[in-house]
Amino acid sequence: MENHAHADAHDTGDHAAHAHHHEHPKLSFIEKYVFSMDHKVISKQFLFTAMFMALAAAIMSTLFRLQLAWPGHSFPVMHYFLGDKWAPGGKLDPNMYLGLVTIHGTIMVFFLLTGGLSGTFANLLIPLQVGARDMASPMLNMLSYWFFLIASVVMMISLYVETGPASAGWTIYPPLSALPQAMDGSKLGMTLWLSSISLFVVSSLLGGLNYIVTILNLRTKGMKMTRMPLTIWALLITAVLGVLSFPVLFGAAILLIFDRSFGTSFYLSDIYINGTALSQTGGSPVLFEHLFWFLGHPEVYIVIMPAFGIISEIMSVNARKPIFGYRAMIGSMLAIAFLAFIVWGHHMFVSGMNPFLGSVFVFTTLLIAIPSAIKAFNYITTLWKGNIIFNPQMLFVIGAVSTFISGGLTGIILADSALDVAVHGTYFVVAHFHIVMGLSAVLAMFGGVYHWFPKMFGRFMNKKLGYWHFWLTFICAYGVFLPMHFVGLAGVPRRYFNNDLYAPFEKLQHLNVIISIFAIIGVLSQVIFFVNFFYSVFKGPKSEQNPWNSNTLEWTTPIMPEHGNWPGELPVVHRWPYDYSKPGKGVDFIPQTVPMEEGEMDEGEHV
Amino acid sequence: MIKLLVYLAIVLAFILVFQLMRIYQLSAEVKGKHIGKADENDNRSQGIVMILFVLALFAGLIWLLFDVRGIMLPPAASDVGVTSDNVFLFNWIIIFIVFFITTFMLFYFPFKYKKTKDSKAYFYPHNDKLELIWTVVPSIALAVIIIYGLSLWAKMTGKPDDKAMVIQIYAKQFDFTARYAGADNTLGKSDYRLIDDGSNNTMGLDSTDEKGWDDVIAKGDIHIPVNTPLLFKCNAREVMHGVYFPHFRDQINCVPGITTEIHFTATITTDSMRRVTHDTAFDYVLLCNRVCGGGHYTMGSKVVVDSKEEFAAWMAKQHPHFSHLYDMHHKTAVATAMK
Fold first, then answer.
1. pLDDT tens profile B266-320
2. Residue B337's pLDDT band (boundaries 50, 70, 90)?
3. DSSP 3-state assignment of A188?
4. Of A32, A59, A217, A580, which has the fewest Cβ atoms less than 10 A away?
């Protein structure tokens, strides 16, 4: 593919491209594709790593969905993946069940939707859309990826240790996660989990600081803040959230490591286990919950913000219409980001914290519904009277808005402490956060891949396969999570290996079967994406310079830009990025580099 | 060997698919069609699929609502639970209205405004009035939701009834034990360092505290009286556990090192609920709802809501844990009174 890439760059016939190319000494293969400092290559590295991790996490979900639909049955596939120890005779071991749900959650939240989503699109889009040659510090950027890779490798290794991976749930609440006596998963597996996440935080901070500095300092001439595409706004806010909240997770993890290994009692108090009264007193597991969710809640916005950015950009381009309420979109993202830091307690209504504090968190949490509603209505109004082109990425972002609405609405129930206590920790919660956070972000991420594929690889993906991929994924997504709400409302707790404990749960079993069938089809549908992706990387039809007729700067570079992005001078920006179908113009798009005509108004400047 | 063949077959299948895609692409190029960008045919067909999808989604949801009748939780069986069900219903009505309207618009607009030969988009970058409306209207709706919800929360977590019967729920891997506070309605002290499974002091009760001498530890099912305010004090031995009463719509964690509390009044006896649900085998349940180790899914207790008379009869059959101390104390008290 890279050979073609060269050819494409030269095909543009831009003399400056040649001149620029010769300025650089020839890089070795290792420098260019492995330890690369080019943000575009790093972006692809993040994407490939995240795709691999997501595949692993998706297989895990199939395995535990098999168990939940047909508990106690023997499945050869279970034995194939887990072997004699964890699936003797093809029957899943209850400890491994907890291991699978824990690692599935960890990978999906951190490695796919944080590292993968931000890593891929912040790296690709920030320099290209603000008009910079690279990140502020390409070196830190490279390190960010390598820490991410090491974290991924450590997390995968933890699956293979004798006592099994971390199994205390992805939230790893102590004392369960702190006491190796409490479960096998809290032995070496938990040590590796904590090591992996600590490395992940380092990666996230290196990346995040870089994104912020680049956006604030390296914008090209004319790229005022009010002319930045919403993708950049979203990625900027995401990075700020990450930089402020991830260190707290790091602190929480360090204290947990101390409790586990050095006899401290930050989270431990009055514990009697395996015939021994431990000497630790005075600590509190609730402290861990506070620290964890102080990251954990901003984390869900770290996941969804880049999705907002991607949705805004793709929807505007494919509706051939400016995003409705550009300023309101920025304002609502800032409001969400601010509120994100004062709502963490809504995860802790049953933790035993002071109920009055609970009321405060109810109030702040429900406030978030207001900027979220603004976003949803603005997206719908962007579609209204548009001129909509059904490229695959457009389907994905419409799907993402749909899941954001559906999942966001059930959030109203969970934000209400008095109602939360009725469904806390049930499948209702699982359904809610998978729809609102997981699906919205995954669908937007797929949309982003289809949309910027020509920029990454100089080729198109096959649209027909894109349609099949979208509809199968989307139908299965609702097929999985719509019935799951009812399983939760019926009182079934999550993280149960089977539901034998309470006989009336048997009446819900057909719903579990429906969910699992949709889940398995949904995971298998991703084969369509993988085939389409890898085929198109090598053999897809070649792209033009601006395949979707977009306004943003990334499409003013050569098809496959070299390191440095623009062969000659950096582009100069004259207008906001959403001049689509502006009245009185011959074309339905006006790139940001086109100077304003006399008397023309810049909509980004509107107050 | 068979595995190898399977792998080989998979590799060949991928090669086949790649070749088919290649052929498809070449034939499309010959016909002058673009296989990466949507054309008007795609807009038309995908627009129709959008409408079909949204109708199927609504149909699926409505089917589910009918399908789950009778298999969901029965009506709430506690005082707070009854209000909780009302607040739920109120929120669900708002949620369903917003869901149907916004979701329909979201899928209908792409269908309606798909790009055709001569279609144009309407340049509509903002409208302050509209944006104000959909800031203010949700704000008002949310204010109502917050006030309604918090008024119930205040009732749930406010001061318990002075006469509420105190029951300790003690959670350990992987079972619950209930301790009733006895005649003085005060639980005796306990200390985790006194726990000794061998000598049957599984909760670490302190025998020097007189208040604990009349405490009753119930083995097996947890019995509670109907229409009596109850105050549950929850503790955990080694890791966090969750006290989850789905039928009473209430829940709290058990946390090592601290005591957490919930209080409510059960309003329907097990027998009455069996008649309500037409299920003679119906029972209330207490479930552990905080992952606590490999046996988490086995951790729960049957809960029996007795009439007040049944409960008194059941309690009369129980013996205080420190029955020897209790009896001695009782005798001394009687002797003192006689003097």
1. 999 999 999 999 999 999 999 999 999 999 999 999 999 999 999 999 999 998 8
2. low
3. helix
4. A217
CA distances from B212 to B189, B262, B335 (A): 7, 21, 21
> Inter-chain contact A324–B73, Cβ cutoff 8 Å?
no
Q: Tens digit of pLDDT for each residue in A111-142?
A: 999 999 999 999 999 999 999 999 999 999 99
Phi, psi of A554 (to 5 degrees): -60, -25
Q: For B297, which of A319, A498, A511 is closest by C-beta distance? A: A498
Secondary structure of chain A: what % helix, strand, coil (to 5)? 70, 0, 30
Residues A390 and B46 sit within 8 Å (Cβ to Cβ): yes
| DSSP structure string for B138-182 | HHHHHHHHHHHHHHHHHHHHSPPPTTPEEEEEEEETTEEEEEE-T
List the domain boundaries for chain A.
Answer: 36-597
- Would you call A390 and B47 a contact, using CB atoms and an 8 Å cutoff? yes
Is B205 in a helix, a strand, or coil?
A: strand
d(CA A561, CA B24): 29
Set of chain A residues whose Cβ sits within 8 Å of the Cβ of B52: none
Residue to test with chain A: of B67, B84, B86, B240, most A Cβ within 10 A: B240
What is the predicted pLDDT for the residue at A17?
A: 42
The pTM of the whole model exceeds 0.80? yes
Q: Which residues of B touch A507 (CB under 8 A)?
A: 70-71
Interface of A with B in 297-336 (CB under 8 A): 319-328
Q: Indicate yes or no: CB of A379 within 8 angstroms of CB of B295.
A: no
Query: Which residues, at least 6 apart from A218, have a Cβ–Cβ distance to it below 8 Å?
Result: A127, A130, A132, A135, A136
Query: Most distant CA pair in chain A: distance in Å?
Result: 84
Give the gap in angstroms from C-alpha A465 to the nearest C-alpha of chain B: 10
Strand partners, B284: B303
Residues 149-208 of A with CB under 8 A from B: 167-169, 173, 175-176, 179, 181-184
pLDDT tens-digit profile of A199-256? 999 999 999 999 999 999 999 999 999 999 999 999 999 999 999 999 999 999 999 9
The alpha-carbon gap from A147 to the nearest alpha carbon of chain B, in Å, equals 30
Q: B172-213 pLDDT, tens per residue?
A: 999 999 999 989 999 999 999 999 988 888 999 998 998 998
To which residue do tokens 């699906």 refer? A439
Max CA-CA distance within chain B? 115
Which distant-in-sequence residues (6+ apart) come within 8 Å of A68 by Cβ? A498, A512, A515, A516
The alpha helices in B158-297, defined as continuous H runs, are: 270-277
Cβ contact B244–A541 (<8 Å): no
Whole-number Å distance between alpha carbons of A200 and A250: 9
Q: How far A192 CA lies from chain B's nearest CA (Å)? A: 18
Q: What is the pLDDT of residue A196?
A: 97
Mutate to test the interface with B, among A227, A416, A426, A603 (most CBs of B within 10 A): A416
Nearest CA in chain A to B44: A390
- Domain A36-597, CATH 1.20.210.10 — does that match? yes
Measure Cα distances from B125 to A316, A318, A382 in Å. Answer: 10, 15, 8
Q: Is the pLDDT of residue B329 over 80?
A: no
Note whether A402 contacts B106, CB cutoff 8 Å.
yes
Is A530 near chain B, with CB under 8 Å?
no
CB atoms under 10 Å from CB of B324, counted, come to 10
Confidence of residue A584 (pLDDT cuts 50, 70, 90): confident
ipTM of the complex: 0.94
End-to-end Cα separation, chain A, in angstroms: 46
- B235 — alpha (psi -120 to 50), left (phi > 0) or beta? beta
